Amino acid sequence: MSRRKIIIGAVLLVLFTFVATSGAFLYMLHINSTDIAGTLKLFRVIQLIKSRYVEEVPSDALLAGAIKGMVNSLGDPHSIYLDPKMYKEFMIETEGSFGGVGIVIGIKDKMLTVVAPIEGTPGDKAGIKSGDQILKIDGLDTKDMALDEAVSKIRGPEGSHVTLSILRSGQDAKEYTLTRSNIQIKTVTGKMLENDIGYVRLSMFNENTGSDIGKKLQELEKQGMKAVILDLRDNPGGLLEESVKVAGNFVPKGPVVSVVTKDGTRETHSSNLAAPKYPLVILVNGGSASASEIVAGAVQDTGAGTLIGTKTFGKGSVQTIIRLDGGSAMKLTIAKYLTPNDRSINGVGIEPDIKVEMPDFKENGKDLQLEKAIEVLKGKL
After folding, report:
1. Which residues form the PDZ domain (predicted)?
2. pTM over 0.70
3. Catalytic position from the list 301, 317, 328, 372
4. 78, part of any domain
């Protein structure tokens, strides 16, 4: 038997053992000949590198590289491979704290872009804004840099520094040197304004947001709140389940969001609220993304309130975290979401009911969007 046949036979044995022991045998029965040939090619490349590359290469490094390459080939900035360190950081972030400079980033128009700064963090205090493009990280060009790689480079130990080269529309590029800190996120804040109007600010949606907003609304109701402003500006989103809980405080009984998967399966998340309790205005802008857009879209479609501000970011896809061996994971886009009127806003965003632009610098400290919200609610009381 030739050496080639021995190698191919060994690869087939390894492949069969892998799929059988991983519980993927049924899937194996459904893949076509092209898939099988491609899988064999992958294993052959691994074997060639292991046997002929000039230096020793750990098998786990080769497999991690292969997985990362496959996910990156999707061309979807929201689908990423998370190595053990990144996965740990991701889980900590959704629990409410993480290390970094406090900016949420994404890919927009093929550029690394700030979705939103998180209030009170080094990025926010330095003046970084939603829509800013990050050209370099510590002098490294971000062109063609994967989103997960950029996140990893921006994060680091508390007290260390990172320099970002930022391009803002209509301005020259500017460098910001930021000191990393442990980011503690309080997602819900609020207060009473004039005319018994409550103001609630959501900075993002983590696992505590749904319960925290319920408590805040009860607190404001005890103070006599008769109308409410929900501020979702520069809120980059977060957990879908929490957005449904938040919407359940404002959207009347019925659909909040529908999640549609590749095969057309539809899962609808609904509100159980008998009827809206009070007039509502939601403030949105280009930094309002993902879970923020779920809430805003549901309110707009059901007529439960008025959207004021500027067009939202336009992230209408749903990701899930799939744990892999060795402490790693994959964040994979598995569905798109639709508003109650079956609108897909991915890449499009949501236009507000009343458009109010905000100048780069507040005139005399005025918040024109907030002032408009108060004016609209006064007319409904």
Report:
1. 91-155
2. no
3. 301
4. no
